[in-house]
Structure of DHHA1 domain-containing protein:
Amino acid sequence: MKIALEQAAQMVADAQTVILTSHIRPDGDSIGSTLGLMHYLREQGKDARVLIDDEIPRIFRVLPGIEQIERPAEGTRYTADLLIVCDVELKRTGAVLDAVDAVRVLNIDHHVTNDEAAEYLYLNPDYAATCEIMHDLVHVMGGSFSLDAATCFYTGMATDTGFFRFSNTTPHTMRAAADLIEIGVKPNIIAVAMELKSYDEVMAQVRAIKNLEMFYDGRVAAVFIDEERAKEVTTTEGLLDALRVIEGTQVVFFMKWLEQDTYRVSMRSKGTNVSRIAQGFGGGGHIRAAGCTLHGSFDEAKKTILEAIGEELNR
Ligand code: 5GP
Ligand code: MN
Ligand code: MN
Protein backbone atom coordinates (compact mmCIF):
# COMPACT_ATOMS: atom_id res chain seq x y z
CA MET A 1 0.00 0.00 0.00
CA LYS A 2 1.38 3.41 -0.92
CA ILE A 3 1.50 5.87 1.94
CA ALA A 4 2.34 9.56 2.26
CA LEU A 5 5.69 10.79 3.56
CA GLU A 6 3.97 12.03 6.74
CA GLN A 7 2.65 8.52 7.43
CA ALA A 8 6.09 7.04 6.82
CA ALA A 9 7.54 9.61 9.24
CA GLN A 10 4.94 8.63 11.86
CA MET A 11 5.83 4.93 11.50
CA VAL A 12 9.49 5.75 12.05
CA ALA A 13 8.67 8.00 15.01
CA ASP A 14 6.56 5.24 16.61
CA ALA A 15 9.39 2.70 16.49
CA GLN A 16 12.08 2.41 19.18
CA THR A 17 14.20 -0.33 17.61
CA VAL A 18 14.81 -0.03 13.88
CA ILE A 19 16.69 -2.20 11.38
CA LEU A 20 17.62 -0.62 8.06
CA THR A 21 18.49 -2.57 4.96
CA SER A 22 18.92 -2.20 1.22
CA HIS A 23 19.86 -4.06 -1.94
CA ILE A 24 22.66 -6.50 -2.64
CA ARG A 25 25.51 -5.11 -4.77
CA PRO A 26 25.32 -1.96 -2.66
CA ASP A 27 25.85 1.48 -4.19
CA GLY A 28 26.14 5.02 -2.84
CA ASP A 29 22.40 5.50 -2.50
CA SER A 30 21.68 2.19 -0.76
CA ILE A 31 24.51 2.70 1.71
CA GLY A 32 23.98 6.44 2.10
CA SER A 33 20.25 6.18 2.77
CA THR A 34 20.49 3.38 5.34
CA LEU A 35 23.62 4.60 7.14
CA GLY A 36 22.47 8.23 7.09
CA LEU A 37 19.09 7.35 8.57
CA MET A 38 20.84 5.13 11.16
CA HIS A 39 22.85 8.16 12.34
CA TYR A 40 19.76 10.36 12.48
CA LEU A 41 17.70 7.77 14.40
CA ARG A 42 20.47 7.16 16.94
CA GLU A 43 20.70 10.92 17.45
CA GLN A 44 16.96 10.81 18.22
CA GLY A 45 17.67 8.26 20.97
CA LYS A 46 16.52 5.23 19.03
CA ASP A 47 18.20 1.87 18.67
CA ALA A 48 19.11 1.60 14.98
CA ARG A 49 21.38 -0.72 12.98
CA VAL A 50 22.08 -1.42 9.31
CA LEU A 51 22.10 -4.95 7.89
CA ILE A 52 23.24 -5.45 4.27
CA ASP A 53 23.74 -8.89 2.82
CA ASP A 54 26.81 -8.19 0.72
CA GLU A 55 30.33 -6.84 0.84
CA ILE A 56 30.66 -3.07 1.07
CA PRO A 57 32.89 -1.68 -1.72
CA ARG A 58 36.07 -0.02 -0.46
CA ILE A 59 35.27 3.44 -1.81
CA PHE A 60 32.58 3.85 0.85
CA ARG A 61 35.14 3.76 3.67
CA VAL A 62 34.96 7.55 3.57
CA LEU A 63 31.46 7.41 5.07
CA PRO A 64 31.17 7.87 8.84
CA GLY A 65 30.06 4.68 10.59
CA ILE A 66 30.59 2.47 7.55
CA GLU A 67 32.30 -0.18 9.73
CA GLN A 68 29.07 -0.56 11.69
CA ILE A 69 27.16 -2.01 8.74
CA GLU A 70 26.55 -5.66 9.55
CA ARG A 71 26.13 -8.62 7.28
CA PRO A 72 23.37 -10.92 8.59
CA ALA A 73 24.89 -14.00 10.22
CA GLU A 74 23.47 -17.33 9.11
CA GLY A 75 20.96 -18.76 11.56
CA THR A 76 20.75 -15.52 13.57
CA ARG A 77 17.33 -13.93 14.15
CA TYR A 78 17.10 -10.16 14.35
CA THR A 79 14.15 -8.41 15.97
CA ALA A 80 12.92 -4.86 15.68
CA ASP A 81 9.82 -2.72 15.91
CA LEU A 82 10.41 -1.60 12.35
CA LEU A 83 12.36 -2.84 9.35
CA ILE A 84 12.98 -0.13 6.76
CA VAL A 85 13.91 -1.36 3.29
CA CYS A 86 15.55 1.48 1.36
CA ASP A 87 16.28 2.06 -2.35
CA VAL A 88 14.89 -1.31 -3.48
CA GLU A 89 11.81 -3.50 -3.36
CA LEU A 90 11.63 -6.06 -0.54
CA LYS A 91 12.70 -9.11 -2.53
CA ARG A 92 16.17 -7.88 -3.53
CA THR A 93 17.57 -7.63 0.00
CA GLY A 94 19.33 -11.00 0.05
CA ALA A 95 18.97 -12.92 3.31
CA VAL A 96 17.87 -9.93 5.39
CA LEU A 97 14.11 -10.10 4.88
CA ASP A 98 13.91 -13.68 6.18
CA ALA A 99 16.34 -13.07 9.05
CA VAL A 100 14.40 -10.17 10.56
CA ASP A 101 11.32 -10.41 12.76
CA ALA A 102 9.86 -6.92 12.64
CA VAL A 103 6.48 -5.76 13.86
CA ARG A 104 6.16 -3.63 10.74
CA VAL A 105 8.01 -3.31 7.45
CA LEU A 106 8.33 0.02 5.66
CA ASN A 107 9.67 0.34 2.11
CA ILE A 108 11.14 3.68 1.00
CA ASP A 109 12.17 3.83 -2.65
CA HIS A 110 12.46 5.92 -5.82
CA HIS A 111 12.45 3.17 -8.49
CA VAL A 112 9.53 3.33 -10.96
CA THR A 113 9.84 -0.44 -11.26
CA ASN A 114 9.19 -1.07 -7.52
CA ASP A 115 6.86 -4.09 -7.39
CA GLU A 116 4.75 -2.44 -4.64
CA ALA A 117 4.69 -5.68 -2.65
CA ALA A 118 5.37 -3.91 0.66
CA GLU A 119 2.53 -3.42 3.10
CA TYR A 120 3.72 0.15 3.65
CA LEU A 121 5.46 1.85 0.74
CA TYR A 122 6.59 5.41 0.33
CA LEU A 123 7.58 5.65 -3.34
CA ASN A 124 8.75 8.82 -5.06
CA PRO A 125 9.92 8.10 -8.61
CA ASP A 126 10.36 11.85 -9.24
CA TYR A 127 13.34 11.92 -6.92
CA ALA A 128 16.81 11.14 -8.17
CA ALA A 129 17.82 9.19 -5.09
CA THR A 130 16.43 7.53 -1.99
CA CYS A 131 18.77 9.86 -0.11
CA GLU A 132 16.77 12.77 -1.54
CA ILE A 133 13.68 11.25 0.09
CA MET A 134 15.64 10.86 3.34
CA HIS A 135 16.42 14.56 3.28
CA ASP A 136 12.67 15.31 3.22
CA LEU A 137 11.86 12.60 5.77
CA VAL A 138 14.21 14.09 8.33
CA HIS A 139 12.67 17.52 7.71
CA VAL A 140 9.18 16.12 8.33
CA MET A 141 10.31 14.26 11.46
CA GLY A 142 12.05 17.31 12.87
CA GLY A 143 15.37 17.58 14.58
CA SER A 144 18.56 18.47 12.84
CA PHE A 145 20.96 16.61 10.60
CA SER A 146 24.34 15.82 12.02
CA LEU A 147 27.31 16.08 9.67
CA ASP A 148 27.51 12.26 9.72
CA ALA A 149 23.95 11.86 8.45
CA ALA A 150 24.34 14.69 5.96
CA THR A 151 27.54 13.19 4.51
CA CYS A 152 25.80 9.86 3.92
CA PHE A 153 22.73 11.44 2.30
CA TYR A 154 24.84 13.70 0.10
CA THR A 155 26.82 10.71 -1.16
CA GLY A 156 23.69 8.88 -2.33
CA MET A 157 22.36 11.96 -4.11
CA ALA A 158 25.72 12.54 -5.78
CA THR A 159 26.24 8.96 -6.97
CA ASP A 160 22.67 8.39 -8.25
CA THR A 161 22.84 11.63 -10.28
CA GLY A 162 26.37 11.12 -11.62
CA PHE A 163 27.39 14.09 -9.48
CA PHE A 164 24.35 16.14 -10.49
CA ARG A 165 24.82 15.64 -14.23
CA PHE A 166 22.09 13.10 -15.11
CA SER A 167 18.58 14.06 -16.27
CA ASN A 168 17.15 13.01 -12.89
CA THR A 169 18.79 16.08 -11.29
CA THR A 170 16.09 18.63 -10.38
CA PRO A 171 15.97 21.94 -8.51
CA HIS A 172 14.86 19.93 -5.47
CA THR A 173 17.91 17.67 -5.74
CA MET A 174 20.18 20.71 -5.84
CA ARG A 175 18.41 22.43 -2.94
CA ALA A 176 18.55 19.28 -0.83
CA ALA A 177 22.26 18.93 -1.63
CA ALA A 178 22.78 22.59 -0.78
CA ASP A 179 21.16 22.01 2.65
CA LEU A 180 23.65 19.24 3.30
CA ILE A 181 26.63 21.29 2.12
CA GLU A 182 25.50 24.05 4.48
CA ILE A 183 25.76 21.55 7.35
CA GLY A 184 29.39 20.98 6.39
CA VAL A 185 29.53 18.24 3.74
CA LYS A 186 32.57 18.67 1.48
CA PRO A 187 31.57 17.79 -2.12
CA ASN A 188 35.20 17.51 -3.25
CA ILE A 189 36.03 14.93 -0.58
CA ILE A 190 33.06 12.75 -1.55
CA ALA A 191 33.76 13.14 -5.29
CA VAL A 192 37.42 12.18 -4.96
CA ALA A 193 36.59 9.21 -2.71
CA MET A 194 33.91 7.87 -5.07
CA GLU A 195 36.25 8.03 -8.07
CA LEU A 196 39.12 6.27 -6.35
CA LYS A 197 40.42 3.16 -8.11
CA SER A 198 43.32 0.83 -7.45
CA TYR A 199 45.89 0.15 -10.17
CA ASP A 200 44.34 -3.30 -10.67
CA GLU A 201 40.89 -1.79 -11.11
CA VAL A 202 42.14 0.63 -13.77
CA MET A 203 43.80 -2.26 -15.61
CA ALA A 204 40.61 -4.32 -15.35
CA GLN A 205 38.72 -1.45 -16.98
CA VAL A 206 41.28 -1.25 -19.78
CA ARG A 207 40.90 -4.99 -20.40
CA ALA A 208 37.11 -4.67 -20.37
CA ILE A 209 37.10 -1.83 -22.91
CA LYS A 210 39.24 -3.94 -25.25
CA ASN A 211 36.13 -6.09 -25.69
CA LEU A 212 33.99 -3.18 -26.86
CA GLU A 213 31.54 -4.00 -29.65
CA MET A 214 29.18 -1.66 -31.50
CA PHE A 215 25.69 -2.59 -32.75
CA TYR A 216 22.71 -1.02 -34.52
CA ASP A 217 24.68 1.53 -36.57
CA GLY A 218 26.62 2.70 -33.54
CA ARG A 219 23.56 3.35 -31.41
CA VAL A 220 24.55 0.60 -29.00
CA ALA A 221 27.96 0.05 -27.39
CA ALA A 222 28.46 -3.14 -25.40
CA VAL A 223 31.06 -5.18 -23.59
CA PHE A 224 30.47 -8.92 -23.24
CA ILE A 225 32.49 -10.68 -20.57
CA ASP A 226 32.37 -14.47 -20.66
CA GLU A 227 33.62 -16.83 -17.93
CA GLU A 228 37.19 -16.72 -19.26
CA ARG A 229 37.32 -12.92 -19.54
CA ALA A 230 35.62 -12.50 -16.14
CA LYS A 231 38.87 -13.73 -14.55
CA GLU A 232 40.74 -10.67 -15.79
CA VAL A 233 37.86 -8.17 -15.69
CA THR A 234 37.50 -8.19 -11.92
CA THR A 235 35.46 -4.99 -11.78
CA THR A 236 32.99 -3.21 -14.05
CA GLU A 237 32.88 -0.11 -11.85
CA GLY A 238 33.00 2.96 -14.10
CA LEU A 239 32.91 0.91 -17.30
CA LEU A 240 29.57 2.29 -18.47
CA ASP A 241 30.70 5.85 -17.75
CA ALA A 242 33.53 5.23 -20.18
CA LEU A 243 31.18 3.84 -22.86
CA ARG A 244 28.43 6.46 -22.61
CA VAL A 245 30.71 9.20 -23.97
CA ILE A 246 30.93 7.47 -27.36
CA GLU A 247 29.27 9.75 -29.88
CA GLY A 248 26.00 8.47 -31.32
CA THR A 249 25.30 5.88 -28.62
CA GLN A 250 21.74 5.59 -27.29
CA VAL A 251 22.25 2.55 -25.08
CA VAL A 252 25.46 1.27 -23.51
CA PHE A 253 25.66 -1.90 -21.49
CA PHE A 254 27.75 -4.82 -20.35
CA MET A 255 26.90 -8.46 -19.88
CA LYS A 256 29.17 -10.27 -17.44
CA TRP A 257 29.48 -13.91 -16.44
CA LEU A 258 28.34 -14.39 -12.83
CA GLU A 259 28.17 -18.16 -12.43
CA GLN A 260 27.23 -21.23 -14.48
CA ASP A 261 24.76 -20.12 -17.18
CA THR A 262 24.09 -16.84 -15.36
CA TYR A 263 24.94 -13.35 -16.60
CA ARG A 264 24.59 -9.92 -15.08
CA VAL A 265 23.41 -7.14 -17.39
CA SER A 266 23.79 -3.46 -16.57
CA MET A 267 22.45 -0.80 -18.95
CA ARG A 268 22.54 3.00 -19.34
CA SER A 269 20.64 5.04 -21.92
CA LYS A 270 20.11 8.57 -23.16
CA GLY A 271 16.30 8.25 -23.20
CA THR A 272 15.55 4.73 -24.42
CA ASN A 273 13.55 2.94 -21.71
CA VAL A 274 16.04 0.38 -20.43
CA SER A 275 13.99 -0.32 -17.29
CA ARG A 276 11.33 -1.86 -19.53
CA ILE A 277 13.96 -4.13 -21.08
CA ALA A 278 15.25 -5.12 -17.63
CA GLN A 279 11.74 -5.76 -16.35
CA GLY A 280 11.18 -8.14 -19.25
CA PHE A 281 13.85 -10.35 -17.66
CA GLY A 282 12.74 -9.93 -14.04
CA GLY A 283 15.04 -7.00 -13.32
CA GLY A 284 14.31 -3.31 -12.96
CA GLY A 285 15.68 0.16 -12.38
CA HIS A 286 15.08 3.54 -13.95
CA ILE A 287 14.34 4.62 -17.55
CA ARG A 288 18.01 5.51 -18.13
CA ALA A 289 19.73 3.05 -15.77
CA ALA A 290 18.61 -0.51 -15.22
CA GLY A 291 19.83 -4.06 -14.74
CA CYS A 292 18.79 -7.69 -14.83
CA THR A 293 20.14 -11.23 -14.70
CA LEU A 294 20.02 -13.56 -17.71
CA HIS A 295 20.20 -17.35 -17.79
CA GLY A 296 21.35 -19.74 -20.49
CA SER A 297 24.46 -20.09 -22.60
CA PHE A 298 26.67 -17.09 -23.32
CA ASP A 299 25.62 -16.94 -26.98
CA GLU A 300 21.90 -17.26 -26.12
CA ALA A 301 22.09 -14.55 -23.48
CA LYS A 302 24.01 -12.24 -25.82
CA LYS A 303 21.45 -12.72 -28.61
CA THR A 304 18.51 -12.30 -26.22
CA ILE A 305 19.66 -9.00 -24.73
CA LEU A 306 20.73 -7.54 -28.07
CA GLU A 307 17.34 -8.37 -29.61
CA ALA A 308 15.46 -6.87 -26.68
CA ILE A 309 17.48 -3.67 -26.91
CA GLY A 310 16.97 -3.52 -30.69
CA GLU A 311 13.22 -3.82 -30.19
CA GLU A 312 13.16 -1.00 -27.64
CA LEU A 313 15.32 1.22 -29.90
CA ASN A 314 12.76 0.84 -32.68
CA ARG A 315 9.72 1.57 -30.54
P1 5GP B 1 23.20 -1.04 -12.03
O1 5GP B 1 23.26 -1.16 -13.52
O2 5GP B 1 24.03 0.11 -11.54
O3 5GP B 1 23.48 -2.31 -11.32
O4 5GP B 1 21.71 -0.66 -11.71
C1 5GP B 1 21.05 0.41 -12.32
C2 5GP B 1 19.71 0.62 -11.65
O5 5GP B 1 18.88 -0.51 -11.89
C3 5GP B 1 19.80 0.76 -10.14
O6 5GP B 1 18.85 1.68 -9.72
C4 5GP B 1 19.48 -0.62 -9.62
O7 5GP B 1 18.91 -0.59 -8.36
C5 5GP B 1 18.52 -1.15 -10.68
N1 5GP B 1 18.69 -2.60 -10.86
C6 5GP B 1 19.79 -3.23 -11.31
N2 5GP B 1 19.61 -4.55 -11.36
C7 5GP B 1 18.36 -4.79 -10.94
C8 5GP B 1 17.58 -5.99 -10.77
O8 5GP B 1 18.02 -7.11 -11.03
N3 5GP B 1 16.32 -5.81 -10.28
C9 5GP B 1 15.79 -4.58 -9.99
N4 5GP B 1 14.55 -4.51 -9.54
N5 5GP B 1 16.50 -3.45 -10.16
C10 5GP B 1 17.76 -3.53 -10.61
MN1 MN C 1 20.75 1.73 -5.43
MN1 MN D 1 18.83 4.88 -5.75
Q: What stands out?
A: Residues 15 and 244 are 44 Å apart (CA to CA). The radius of gyration is 19 Å. The domain at 5-195 is CATH 3.90.1640.10 (inorganic pyrophosphatase (n-terminal core)).
